Amino acid sequence: MTSQINVTPFVDVCLVLLIIFMVVTPMVEASTNITLPTTESPEKTEEEGQIVISVKDGIAYFSGNAVREEDLVRALEEKFEENPGTQIAVKGDKFGKYGDVMAVLRAAREVGFERIGLVTEPEDRAAAMRRITEEEAGVQ
Length: 140
What we know:
This protein is an alpha/beta fold. About 45% of the residues lie in helices and about 20% in strands. It has helices at about 10-30, 70-80, 100-110, 125-135; strands spanning about 40, 50-55, 60, 65, 90, 115-120, 120. A hairpin with a 2-residue loop joins strand 3 and strand 4. Helix 2 (about 70-80) runs parallel beside helix 3 (about 100-110). The protein is extended. The model has no long low-confidence stretch (mean pLDDT about 80).
């Protein structure tokens, strides 16, 4: 009688882990919590296919992934080759360094993009978010 390894439990565990990673990964990518600066009347120019780059704590996030400056330039060059008229939307954290946002803007300009904008939050929405945050924290 020969003994054989039963791989069925191993395959089951691997499939469960794969499903868990598939579910958790989009949540992790979307968890870059950026506090946007506020303005009284921001322009709304959301477009389908626009590129959104987030900047927080000196780190740029392109398509939800943290990237170094040289990788950001490479990714922007690829997008520029696909469609030079694509709009770039930069989300800079309100409490971040001005220079970090400027580095992203400069990289997009150097690649050749001309339609670059900064994303802000309307003033009244910001006040509502502060109120909700204070209520959750128990501040009165």
